[in-house]
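User:
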Amino acid sequence: MGITSIARLFFHKRQKELERHRKEGVQMQAEVLRHLLAKASDTEYGRNHIFNMMRSYEDFVRNVPVNTYEELKGDIDRMRHGEKDILWRGAVKWYAKSSGTTNDKSKFIPISYEGLQDIHYKGGTDAVALYLRNNPRSRLFDGRSLILGGSHSPNYNAAGSLVGDLSAILIENINPLVNLIRVPDKRTALISDFEVKRDKIAEICLNKNVTNISGVPSWMMSVLQRVMELSGKQHLEEVWPNLEVFFHGGIAFTPYRKAYETLITSPNMHYMETYNASEGFFGLQDDPTDSSMLLMLDYGVFYEFIPMDEFGKDNPTVVPLEGVETGKNYAMLITTSCGLWRYLIGDTVRFTSKNPYKFVITGRTKHFINAFGEELIIDNAEKGLQYACQKHGAQVREYTAAPVFRDKDVVPHHQWVIEFSCPPDDVEAFADTLDAKLQELNSDYEAKRYKDINMVRLKIVVASDGLFEEWMKQRGKLGGQNKVPRLSNSREHIDELLRMNAYNG
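Assistant: Predicted structure:
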């Protein structure tokens, strides 16, 4: 009997429990809310919002406001300095560094011990449980798991407290038994210099029997390309013949799928999407033939949803799980065992099914570019352009930006089409300044630009005079409240503009 056959016995009970998602989703969410309110009733936030008096979801809505990071930031900073029982009970020692807000380069998401266990690790366990259920011939545990992680550093001067990438916090606290089947070793996994770490991981894993890989598609591709360089092989299955699955998440996989399928040609290769973020682990692809994900309803997360056609209004409708409709776009609110209360995470989703509750991620509540995990928001772009214009004596009339995806001779980057009312003397110097400022403003953009490994410097195409006005006119959107889309993950708009610009030129 192989190791995987034995491991299946461990996951069997959980596979049965997951069946509750098909018919008992609303009931599970009610149980989660009761649990969270009871656990946090003696915290400062719980006392201020009378958690101990709440008897229903309606009580919860009446007494707890919808929050963004800005509303919770003061409390989170107190927690980071060691104060106890603020948003969650006890002292919270770990903080996941995430992309910033309008006012800050980075957010620091609290990760409590309970959150590690009943959200993040539970999600990882369920990913394996569902994969084994769907693949009865799997030999997953008969080899090694290549799991990519980030790095962490001390949090202020608080003893034993750390801040860093969520993946680094998970590796730091993982069950020691997992280290018996994972690569690389913990010390290598937590190296802060990605270029050094990538090379070491490739060297360490080259001659291992790797059966599964986990991580963000952009970073993982960089490691795999280094493995191929060291091995001299053409396809990855020549290096790891028993590789069978990639558990991926963090950013959309669509732009990378072709590159992975070119690199890994084995018909036995599988791909499983996960929706795991610094704020929590929310979804898993439970059916390999369906791209939508199962919303995980019995973790330490309570969900609410705002219809996107009401988002931004003074008093938008907010509905719990039972109030959602399929085919409708929603902004997601979460309440978690990490102390995030009715927290607007910024992601938008659309439900494809209610029995069970399944969904797809549709984007963000604001225009952004997150093709490679860079989380560039409009506020970053505006501030970056303002700084570059001041430095180079330029003025921008209109602009838009979109990603350029990896191709045979192309390294990913952002492409900007800018119409100047007063152009800079040196467009390349302007691009250098803009790119550097974006790195200063946004820690995720800075990380993805590190040593040109995953993204190279942005490129600017100078638009002909009147290009954007002509484009908007052709689309029937000239004047009124219509606005040029500034940032987009799609190239639909920018490619239209480029074609018109070439014609005008």
